[in-house]
Amino acid sequence: PPLDEILNLHDFEAIAKQVMAEKAWAYYSSAADDEITNRENHAAYHRLWFRPQILVDVTKVDWSTTILGHRSSMPVYITATALGKLGHPDGELNLTRAAAKHGVIQMIPTLASCSFDEILDAAQPGQVQFFQLYVNKDRDITKRIVQHAEKRGIKGLFITVDAPQLGRREKDMRMKFEADDPSEVRKSGSDGVDRSQGAARAISSFIDPGLKWADLAWFKSITNMPLILKGVQRWEDALKAYDLGLAGVVLSNHGGRQLDFARSGIEVLVEVVTHLKEKRGLSFPNEKFQLFVDGGVRRATDVLKAIALGATAVGVGRPFLYAFSSYGQEGVEKALQILHDEFEMNMRLLGATSIANITPDLVDTSNISSH
Ligand code: FNR
């Protein structure tokens, strides 16, 4: 169907399922084990209800914000997803170019299909990008990658901490991974790639399961980029990250692709905010220690709930993959435009004229427990 018949982010998924190559669909859509967490990610938002305010002048509403100190047209960033060329020949460049047009931030994955420099070169002057890091067993390789990223102007280093081993994504594992295009595995840094068990396992054997808290001091010694842990799932770990002086955490279960029965990011957000307030007197959103959430976000209303509860911004993954797999760069632009329109309408209906006015009282959290 033509792009103007796409009404929401869910539509891209339905179309992608029909038009994508089976192997690519399996890799993008799959999640761990019985995919319970994957379904829960979106469902968790259904337990939160709004308490809108009436009779506020909402002629003008503004949903722009800052993320790690950088302007963003909305409190949404494009999160890191590997292997963009499985879905479209331009791979991650679709995201880079659409992000530039819409003034949003792209997080570049370690396992991009396009090379890191190709993605940086496709960016507009001044375009802000983050980098997602999988830590290699060979720390010299990791050091080189991190320092190169900093030199090229990356504004935040998101270290993935929820994947000491890749989860079992059985849909993907049933597919034999045959990278026709060697660039699909370019960044893996792994020799002896096992191609018999799907794309994810083929590209991930270099990731270090020995990564531990004590290593974070080393990261601080090799870079001045803000460090953020991606994949925090309990308040105790968020507190450790804060005490180590990191710039923030992403409350995420990797799109349900790692530990099945991990809770949703939005649920974890509630407990993190409660405990960091209680134990360190922090209030959120917080400039010094920023909370991010991802997983299952498909509507501006989902984003607004997370913002109200203390998140600085929210990551969106699969919808953009499905958008470019079906329509290329224009698809991603359309997805961002849909979110833009949803923000405008829903901010008006909530009676909030700016992101600063998206406050906790706008959400009824009585269906979510704070562990
Ligand atoms: C991911 N994600 C991910 N995360 C990461 O830290 N490194 C990576 O290489 C990848 N790769 C990846 C590939 C694909 C196909 C998907 C769907 C996801 C996880 C991603 O950053 C994010 O946590 C989730 O995608 C968010 O959930 P939604 O928006 O996809 O539901």
UniProtKB/TrEMBL annotation:
GO molecular function, one term: heme binding
Subunit structure: Homotetramer.
Needed cofactors: FMN; heme b
Sequence similarity: In the C-terminal section; belongs to the FMN-dependent alpha-hydroxy acid dehydrogenase family. In the N-terminal section; belongs to the cytochrome b5 family.
GO BP terms, alphabetized: lactate metabolic process
Sorted UniProt keywords: Flavoprotein, FMN, Heme, Iron, Metal-binding, Mitochondrion, Oxidoreductase
Location(s), subcellular: Mitochondrion intermembrane space
Identification of the protein by name: L-lactate dehydrogenase (cytochrome)
Protein's UniProt keywords contain Nucleus: no
Broad class of the protein's primary localization: mitochondrion
Domain FMN hydroxy acid dehydrogenase, chain residue ranges per copy: 1-368
Taxonomy, superkingdom: Eukaryota
Catalytic activity: (S)-lactate + 2 Fe(III)-[cytochrome c] = 2 Fe(II)-[cytochrome c] + pyruvate + 2 H(+)
KW Iron-sulfur (keyword) present: no
EC numbers, comma separated: 1.1.2.3
GO cellular component: mitochondrial intermembrane space
Native species: Hypholoma sublateritium (strain FD-334 SS-4)
